[in-house]
Amino acid sequence: MRCPKCNHEQQNTVECKACGVIFKKYMRFQERKKELEEKKTENSSNASRYLQTFLLVAAAVAATYYFTRSSNDEMSHTAQVSQVSEGSGSVVVNKKPAKMVSKKSMAGSNTSSVHLRTTPIEQARRATVSIETPWGTGSGFFVDTNYIVTNKHVVEFKNEDLEKIQKRVKTNREFIDLEEKKLKNLHKRMKQMPKGPSRRQLAIIIENQKGNLAKAIEQQREGEARLAELERDVRAPDIQIILSDGSSHSAGFMVVSQNFDLALLALFSHDSNYLKRPPAGTKFHQGEKVYTVGSPVGLRHTVTAGVFSGYRVRESDNQTFLQTDAAINPGNSGGPLIDERGYVHGVNTMILRDTEGIGFAIPIEKVFEEFSSTLP
Questions:
Q1: In sequence order, what are the residues at sequence separation of 6 or more whose Cβ sits closer than 8 angstroms to the Cβ of residue 62?
Q2: 137: closest CA among 299, 353, 348, 273?
Q3: How many helices (H) and strands (E) does the chain have?
Q4: Rounded to whole angstroms, how far apart are CA atoms 275 and 142?
Q5: Burial class for 31, CB neighbours closer than 10 Å (0-12, 13-18, 19+)
Q6: pLDDT, tens only, 80-90
Q7: pLDDT tens-digit profile of 172-225?
């Protein structure tokens, strides 16, 4: 037998005497090797077929996209008509492709072309100011570039109100002095009492009264400090004018009317819009729409609306007032009463107590009559 590995001839059919290979194992190894080579060849052939298929599909997609795009471009070039001449029937074709505009860019273009319009009410709001004094707040408005009108009671504390506060502070001080003396007597009495429930009860009463007295003393200090502010002469620089932009300025000087609840403040450090009077001879008619601008309860530059209710004459001094149902609250005093066109007709001055919708304004003509020597 010839050995399949080394070609040695021998009689033994199990094992080669020359190389020692076992014939059965060697033959099984060769068969296994052949099977692996055949399988490898088959896999290589399948991969080649898959690659060819993929390349064919990719080529088809590319061709479809190319021809479709070319067709669309041609249509977009030929379908744009820029002008049709009436009568002649001629059509002019624009050879340039149309430029697509997104909705977002169109919206931006429309927005940029819109200009915000300042309304008469907004102009009046800008011309209105808040006024702060040591005792409270009020309103006012520009009647000229550098002059502001307001109520006299906004910038000048009433003597009768001051006298009431002085009396209240004095009475509270007397009460505190008497309470302190009373506590001293109670404390002395407690020391003389024997230990027991009665003494303990008195000690509790004394502690409660001490707490109440401490609160009264603190309130008295605040009242006396406020009274000191009211008693001193308030000068123009003590009055703060807050403009619509939030900036604060001190008044230049102050003129107070002797006949009306009016005062004039000067502000030379700022040029501002001012409210204009209506044309000469213009009269309000009942039911006409009106607006007030002011700072009620600290809410600066608040606008309220209503109607003109009529002209009213006060019997005590024969003064004429404009009546309106537009809300006039504490802090609105000194603000303007305007119409829908933004013309100022009056200076808000007061309301009737225990009523709603009954407010009054001083006619704007009185402002220029009272301060004719100051206003241009």
A1: none
A2: 299
A3: 7, 15
A4: 6
A5: exposed
A6: 433 333 333 33
A7: 999 999 999 999 999 898 988 998 999 999 999 999 999 999 999 999 999 888
Retrieve residue 359's tokens. 């407010």
Q: Which residues of 151-177 are buried (b: 16+ CB within 10 A; e: fewer)?
A: bbbbbebeeeeeeebeeeeeebeeeee
Q: How far apart are CA 285 and CA 324, in angstroms?
A: 11
Q: Count CB neighbours of 66 within 10 A.
A: 10
Q: Give the integer Cα–Cα distance in Å for 257 and 374.
A: 12
d(CA 363, CA 322): 7
Tell me the two tokens of residue 59.
Answer: 């080529």
pLDDT at residue number 290: 95
Q: How far is CA 111 from CA 66, 104, 127, 158, 279, in A?
A: 40, 11, 28, 54, 37
Of the chain, the percentage scoring pLDDT greater than 70 comes to 76
Cα(180)–Cα(212) distance, rounded to whole angstroms? 11
